[in-house]
Amino acid sequence: MRISNLGGRLALLTDTGAVDVEKASAGQFGADPTAVYAKWDEFVAWARSADLPAGTSYDDADLGAPVPEPAQIFAIGLNYRDHAVESGLDFPAEPPVFTKFRTSLAGPVGDLELPTDTVDWEAELVVVIGRAARDVSAENAWDHVAGLTVGQDFSERTRQLVPPAPQFSLGKSFPGFSPIGPAVVTLDEFADPADLEISCTVDGETMQHGRTSELIFSIPVLIERLSAVLPLLPGDLIFTGTPSGVGGGRSPKRFLRVGEEIVTRIEGIGELRQKCVPGKRHTTAFA
Q1: What region holds the Fumarylacetoacetase-like C-terminal domain (predicted)?
Q2: What mean pLDDT value characterizes the chain?
Q3: How far is 148 from 186, CA to CA, in rounded Å?
Q4: What is the pTM assigned to this prediction?
């Protein structure tokens, strides 16, 4: 099942096109793309038994963030060994956690406004929580996952790394810095949801390529560690980390430029496409 946000309305993407959930369910489920996760079990039961109508054609540009208003967004740093190495840091003993504010969320296709000359890319697998999780063991963690989607953790490196106290959450939360999509794909669609190919290209040049099985802290372990501290709520997002190949890890460093297109792909889910355009310039010193 592929769950999307089409023009602000909850839709299923099928082989025949997009199916509006509110209309197909005769109002049993509303149009809000985020609210459905609070009724996850009921929704899955309906979707698997419903005689869905033929879908209608749609433009990828009309797809929004499939979960536009999560209560919480968690992001994990240094969760691939090769990325920790390129960052010059030790492998973490615990998952480094920060947040991306939800006003930074965007759909899978669109413009990325560059506020400075030091904006970097980070391809990420994003987990969507489907059932509330508190003190959940890794063994049972997949039971709390609604599905997976593609994400980009765009990062303004100057703001992120400003001394003496880095500002990870602010540096990664400019408008449009958290595109996700094109859909939330349920776990039954994957042969192995823990081992997916992930890549990122800039103007056709491969910058990142890896597999999600290379995570230091697996999805079940992330859910276990996070839910030991606080409740994970239906619709919450977890950006699980990025493989090596980011611009800030290169020598010389390489950041995004106006006119470039970033394509982020994950096997079995789809792709994001962002075109870099001029943004409001931030001239105030980050200090």
Answers
A1: 73-275
A2: 95
A3: 7
A4: 0.96
| Structural tokens at position 70 | 């999560």
With 90 as the cut, is the pLDDT of residue 44 above it?
yes
Dihedral sign for Cα atoms in the order 224, 225, 229, 233: negative
Question: What backbone torsions phi and psi does residue 40 show, to the nearest 5 degrees?
Answer: -60, -50
Count of the separate structural domains present in the chain: 2
Cβ contacts of 228 within 8 Å, gap of 6 or more: 135
Q: Which amino acid does the sequence have at 31?
A: A
Is 137 in the same domain as 224? Answer: yes
The whole domain housing 259 covers 73-278
Q: What is the DSSP letter of 116?
A: S
Residue pLDDT, tens place only, 126-183: 999 999 999 999 999 999 999 999 999 999 999 999 989 889 999 999 999 999 999 9
Same domain, yes or no, for 234 and 267? yes
Q: Could you give the CA distance from residue 3 to residue 38 in angstroms, rounded to a whole number?
A: 14
204 pLDDT more than 60: yes
Per-residue exposure over 23-58, b if at least 16 CB sit within 10 Å of its own CB, e if not: ebbeeebebbbbebbebbeebbeebeeeeeeebeee
Query: 282, 117 in Cβ contact below 8 A?
Result: no
- End-to-end, the C-alpha distance of the chain in Å comes to 46
In the prediction, which pLDDT does 131 show? Answer: 98
The answer to whether the peptide bond before residue 95 is cis (omega within 30 degrees of 0) is: no
Residues 255 and 124 occupy one common structural domain: yes
At 85 the pLDDT is 81
- Band the pLDDT of 287: cuts 50, 70, 90: very low
